[in-house]
Amino acid sequence: RAVVCRRSRRGACGVTIWSHAQQAAAGRRRLALWALCGVLPFLTLAYQICAKEAARGLAATPFGAAWIAALVRNPWAQALVGFEIVSFVAWMIVLAEMKLGAAFSLSALSYILVILASWTVFREPADIWQVLGGAAILAGVWMIGRDDLPTDKGA
Known about the structure:
Blueprint: H1 17-58, H2 65-73, H3 75-97, H4 100-107, H5 109-120, H6 128-145
């Protein structure tokens, strides 16, 4: 391990080139994890939109071999599988580095995004109970995971 000494007036040495690199790398890793957690709700949203569109496309086909063939050819279903694979990989990366409570707390935004998409993209009716329920879910998950969020003192 390479050591670069910065001697103080007392002659103490303890700073390495690696310690600065490790601190910077830890900060970048924490930022990347937070960014990745921010992407996960949108991957979930994309998955749900693709699922809804695939279901719409298959609604007129009776379940059976023809339905499965139509599912395999459906571009929305193909995109859905792609989003699921990307989401799985992203989630494994996040969970390898973060506590589950903190990671799940950040991913809870997907509940609200799906409700918003149902109103705006699909023009599904909304009511006050959906809004209150979404807010309660977010508040509850935040309360569960708030103690697990990383701080500057250590993630």
